[in-house]
Fold these 3 entries.
Entry 1:
Amino acid sequence: MPKSSREILESTTTIAVVGASRDPAKAGGSVPAGLQQRGFRIIPINPYAETLFGERVYRSLLEVPHKVDLVDVFRPATDTPEIARQAAAIGARALWLQLDIRSEEARRIAEEAGMDYVEDECTAVVASLNRIRKPAS
């Protein structure tokens, strides 16, 4: 039985954010910042920035040298199959497409790789509604 979005977030420590934004007014800027405040480790993925949320930015998931629990996607649905392939290649446990993002192909890739999968939901909303916080390390 697939895990719920709540269960996925509760078992997550490190989140790679594909489409992390320099603009705090965009969801790709505000949501990761909020998750970081809740104690999640954020690894930003953005080809045009050097540092976001006080963390080093990577150009793609394939460059990340750390273990990633969850890949949180703030990119158009057309980009998600390739992101799913990269998430599978780095051994991520889950792929999460943010609000209004859906992809049957990304779902298929994630499920074939054994990843948990969420689409069309906001990580910040799920974390807030379920009062999910990570202990300070």
Entry 2:
Amino acid sequence: MKDLDVATLVAVFQEMMGWTFWAVLVACVVATLAFAAVLVRDRGVVAARLVRAELAGVLGGVAAVIAMFAVTNSTPGDMGGPIDWLLAVGIFVGGLIGSTIGAYALMGLFAPTRAPVALRGERAIEA
């Protein structure tokens, strides 16, 4: 593996993950497009939705690490050097970020929040 190119990475990941590689890849593309659509529709990030999505993202990070151990047929006791632990942390962070984006997009598409009166262009009533 002297040269690292996209075809080599696809072959390695497909060998490791089987048919689920393509399902994960499609899910990543769909989640990214849905996230972009929600951002454009809402004209920015909704903070409350982002916090809830980040909480869901932690579960996604844990699920990614569990999936890593299932795919590689290993346990945390098999992790020997620091690079193994760094890779596990990287997989957790990747799962966290991907799950956060996906959860934000799902919440934005299926449970849209109503903008406050002042943000809709109407005159706000002050107490």
Entry 3:
Amino acid sequence: MKKIFVGSLPENATETAVSELFTEFGKVRSIHLVQDVFTRTCKGFGFVEMEGHEARAAIAGLDGKMYEGKPLKVKFEEVRDKGKGKRRR
């Protein structure tokens, strides 16, 4: 299972609409769009989980594709090191 970052989404993006984009390349296992706490609108990005070969096909097919007037940013999620670096005080 691979987690894909999807960026440059419009505020009115829905999980259903984004899922339809990705189902062309395989089965979407899960989807989560990050929403503003107060307005409940999409903050412009989210995450999709798919099998490895399907995820690679989706990235190749959707990265840079125009969606609602903006080019999508689609790539594998980068894992952040939470334990390293300076802590805020």
